UniProtKB/TrEMBL annotation:
It is a multi-pass membrane protein. Belongs to the synaptogyrin family. Keywords: Membrane, Transmembrane, Transmembrane helix. The gene is Syngr2. InterPro entries: Marvel, Synaptogyrin. It comes from the Eukaryota. This is SNG2 protein. Its main location: membrane. It is found in: Membrane.
Length: 158
């Protein structure tokens, strides 16, 4: 070994190529892109209005909670990816095994929680989309389907 949580290797020089090739870094980048797609689709085309009524409504069966949930977990997942990406950058410089242990456990716990939340989001958005009437959605249908698809992919990327 590398000591507890890799602590014996702490303090080495930063190698960008080796860093980017690490599986957790690649998974984090993919997760961030998926989260960005989900919340961008919902913010961009998740709300629409009818010609006779200018009031905006969520394309998912007029359920505002569906759009809010997708946007919320998407934004928080994207911010968490950035945070844990920064932790990954500084992780080799941390020599305290207790700090390293807590960071690893926090990453593991958060990833498990967010996997569950993406699963709930996928089920919720899919259910609401199945109850959406076709005449209520003219523009946002592709974005709604993309949000559902990438919330499904996010289950596995987290």
């Amino acid at each position: 070994g590398g000591g507890a949580y890799g602590a014996a290797k702490a303090g080495g020089a930063f190698d960008l190529l080796r860093f980017v090739q690490q599986p957790q870094v690649l998974a984090r980048i993919v997760s961030a892109v998926f989260a960005l797609i989900v919340f961008a689709c919902l913010v961009g085309d998740g709300y629409t209005s009818l010609a006779e009524d200018p009031q905006l409504f969520c394309v998912f069966n007029h359920n505002e909670n569906a759009c809010r949930y997708g946007i919320g977990i998407g934004v928080l997942a994207f911010l968490a990816c950035i945070f844990f990406f920064m932790v990954d950058v500084y992780f080799p410089q941390i020599s305290n095994t207790t700090d390293r242990k807590y960071l690893v456990l926090a990453d593991l716990g958060f990833s498990g929680l967010w996997t569950f939340l993406w699963f709930i989001g996928f089920c919720f958005l899919t259910n609401q989309w199945s109850w959406t009437r076709a005449e209520d959605v003219s523009i946002g249908a592709d974005s709604a389907r993309a949000a559902i698809t990438f919330s499904f992919f996010s289950i596995f990327s987290w």
